[in-house]
Amino acid sequence: MNSRQRQILDLLNSHDLLSTRDLLRPLKITRARLNQLIVPLMKKGLVKREGRARATIYKITDKRSFEQITRKNWELRNRIRELEKTLEDRRVIEQAKEILIAQFDILPTEAYRKLQEQSMDRGRSMREIADGILLAYEF
Q1: What is the CATH number of domain 82-138?
Q2: Verdict on whether the full-model pTM lies above 0.85
Q3: CATH classification of 3-61 is 1.10.10.10, yes or no?
């Protein structure tokens, strides 16, 4: 769901029903663009269309489903942020591991174990230890 579709849902959520014209004004889009945006929402069962041509009105099918989708989107965005952070941590740890492998001519498993040991001994995350190794390696 894109930002324009969220705007449509927000408008419909704040009113019982809206005509096509009522949606076009605040969104500043054409009728064709509105149709492109609203058809997927109708297919998902979020928006209901009544009437035809200029007498068309739109309304939210069930306000609970809109709130559930909003909540689910928020949860998914948070999960994406967590996964991106984890991925970045793994990338930094792998770089530090490569430095240890090259510096001490050890196996990858040994390098990883050394990072783990330092992490446990110092009470810091492996990312912090890896950051320290990368910082020291730059100098």
Answers
A1: 1.10.10.10
A2: no
A3: yes
